[in-house]
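Dear colleagues,

I hope this message finds you well. In preparation for our joint manuscript, I am sending the Synaptic vesicle glycoprotein 2B (Drosophila mauritiana) sequence together with its predicted structure, so that both groups work from identical material. I would be grateful if you could confirm receipt.
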Amino acid sequence: MSEPRESGDPKPPKTAEHQKDPPQKEAAADFEAAIDAAGFGMFNILLLVAAVPAAMGTVYETSTMSYILPSAECDLKLSLLDKGILNAITYAGMISSAVLWGYLADTKGRRNLLIVGYAADTICVLGGAFSQSRIQLMVFKYLGGFCMSGPFAVLMTYLTELHGRKHRQRIMMIVGIMFSIATLTLPGLAMVILPETWNIRIWTLSLTSWQFFVAITALPSLLSFVLFFFFPESPKFLMSKGRNREALDAFKFMYHLNSRKPKDSFPIKLLANEVIVPVKKHAKKETIPTEVKLPTECVEVQDPENQDSKKSSLRSGFTQLRPLFTKPYLGLSLWVYLLNFCVLLGQNTMRLWLPQLFASINEYENLMSGESQSTSICNILEYSVNRTQIQLEAVSLNDPTVECRVNITASTYTNNLIVAGAGLVAYMLAGFLVNLVGVKLIMASGLLVAGGCSIGMYWSSSAASTVALASLFVTMGSISATSVISASVSLFPTSLRTMIVSLEMMFGRLGSLLGNIFFPALMGLGCVPPFLMISAFMLAGCFMAAFLPLKNKAALK
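The corresponding structure tokens are as follows:
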């Protein structure tokens, strides 16, 4: 009776074979399929909530000095050169550690470096808050920049690699909204704390309002350090290292939170291996990283870097850098570096001068309250430079009849709140538009508008028009700067991604340094040169953005 069943109904004997072969072929999924299967839900929301203090810590590290300089100039006896160094030294620290952080993030993982980076930054910010001299403050600001360079680049990569392509571009705009929220809270804190005349002595330490302000800005980094303990390592990074079992666990964790279903019900049981291994071309004897799909029966592949202990670690670092200086990626990487140099030179130069500019506008309007003449930007800049010189002379003279006064009121920071609020609204609009028109068009359009606003500020004849143009400039510049990072993540493979972001941020911070040095130097030549410089770099960035080889909703390499 068994033979007729075999001939008439061939299904029962082949059932075992069907249960073995097809699942292996169908269940072996690449990263994009697995991240889509994990879905979007509670995990992603919690991740974005945790990213808010992380983004705030990044903004606070680079922007705090521009708010406290008017308050601290008498306590620390700051000259114009000292103010410039304090504004720029954070970027110097970031530049000096860019390559180190990029290498560590691409070889040791994203999550661990976020934890270590934000812990170290918390210590540096608190050290700066307790500083009693300008030299101490400069040292801690440099160290803070050194520590914060990594978490910024790693955060962008980490968030990108934990979202599917459907949500990836919009997530970058949400990160921009987070930066806008951070920019909004900073002048809010300054408005509440800096006008106070606190002077508390603890043993030999003298603590004033600006030091309390700096200490409070350490809270976001401290909170980020704690929160990232509860999130998994990037599954994209794990898969690129052959650690597919850990990557699958990460996907299951995401799926469990998003769907509220058991981890074992995750539809994907096996991941395709995406180990980047060096493949030698015998003709030219070149070593090029190639994404190799190893047999899908192997769930776990040993990471090549762990096979040769510490000697291979240094060698792998040079191997990782080599593709950036060879033909496939050399031209594109240089293009991205130069683009970010132009964008951040214009953006951060204007952004760091705005608190001083708005404080001068507030004082100048109070001074000219009885007069009907218009408030031109040239008059305001001249007044700002002269005021700093007068304060410096008052400090240098040890005459008790001459007092160094700090004129800080809550209204001093009103215009900064307006600029930050405008940026928040614009980012929300950009978040809806990015999936329709793409990152490339938003980036090019933003740089074009920012370039026009910069040169337009020269003809500004009132405080209201100056604030409006500055708001539009900073908003468009911020959106464009975030878009450059998003574009870089899409253009390069995962083994080079964080290194590329770190290097392009290094060039961007170099632009920020040079811009903040050139801007006051050009002010001595007149009103047009400083704004013309910023406009020229933003328009150059617009031209370069227009020729980036970007595709909308591209899969991660």
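For the figure legend, we might mention the following. The radius of gyration is 27 Å. The chain has a mean pLDDT of 77.

With kind regards,
E.M.
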